[in-house]
Amino acid sequence: MISCRTLARLLLGYVEQELPGEYRELVEQHLASCAQCVALADSYTVVLQLVRQLQPVPVPPELLEALRIAAGLDLPFAVLHPPWPEPC
Ligand SMILES: [Zn+2]
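Above: query sequence and zinc ion SMILES. Below: predicted holo structure tokens.
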């Protein structure tokens, strides 16, 4: 059986249902016998549900400009001035 530490590394992929089958099985075997990790998995699930309810917020142009400068990139105008609405 995998350790709690190993489970913690696999847990995000598990709750997002992106874990390959063999790893998913290892996680499920562990969760069947470890209440502490079941509680951790439940908390991950709740956090992900809450995050998915958030509305996307456009990146402020000033931040994009700062990132462009920091990265030394020369981004096109459309990226620096996106067509999406300003945040409320
Ligand atoms: Zn555990």
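The helical segments are 4-15, 21-31, 35-53, 61-71, 77-80.
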